[in-house]
User: Fold LysR family transcriptional regulator from Zooshikella ganghwensis.
Amino acid sequence: MHNPALLDLLHTFKMAAQFMSFTKAGEALHMTQAAVSHRIKRLEEELGFKLFIRLTRKLKLTKEGEQLLVTLTDSLLRIEEEIEDIRRNDLRGLLYIGISPTFAQLWVMPKLARFQQAYPALSLRLRIKASALDFRYEPVDLGIYYGRSDYRGVVVDTLLSEQLVPVCTPEYAERHQLYDNPERLSQCLLLHCSECLDHADPRAEWQQWQQGVGILSSKSCTEYFFNHYHMTLQATLQHMGIAMGRLHLVADYLASGALVTPIQQHVPAGLDYTLIYPREHGARPRYQAFIRWLHDEIMHHTFPSDVVSPL
Assistant:
């Protein structure tokens, strides 16, 4: 469809749909009611379907008209955003980031000051949510989530692949004689976390690690279950038990010595920290600034030196 007048006709339709009145649309467009009606008729002929149901003294959108209005409104909003981005070189304004809870708290927040220093004119809004957001219904620009990288209809950029290894405090490891002694796990309080695991068994990470290192599943006397990973870490730091560590989240605790890996073999979690975003966002400078910052931080992110036995 290459009708040069189509944009004018679509603009007239949007105004008529906004006011639900040809008369009021005409006043806003500085034309007569008859001219608006004529334009709508031309647009309907061009498109091949009706846009309005003409009732007594009022208008109603057809199903096709409602669908076109949603698409047109979204398209015009994006055009306005692009124009504003070009005007401002896109390195100011607001970025809305959806992000999984503990990755935000333990990985992003300690590094976020460097982003602010690099891009002082950009504002950020972080929304914490364990499950992935739906870009069709929620006003989020980019998402960072922990899970399987099988999102559809969006760009998927795998940032980090997680590894699993048991962690506890040095005191707990000594008290329970855990160093290189996995059979002692049956005497420990196992700490479980279901954050970002959707509907998986909350014991899934422990079971996966035990299977990966070839240890028979040992039933401990007691178990604690949490749905937030930071709660699991707090229980671990209070010498309550031994947790399944997600290496990228516990790296700083291991580096400081607050936590140790008494049984050092680690196994792939099979889950990733993934950046997802609509394809149309990828080329815009302010989105690229955040993506570039993430990858720069990852380049300087290292595993703790005391984890030496990957499987």
Summary: The two ends are 58 Å apart (CA to CA). Residues 94-160+273-299 form a domain with the D-Maltodextrin-Binding Protein; domain 2 fold (CATH 3.40.190.10). The chain is about 40% helix and 20% strand.
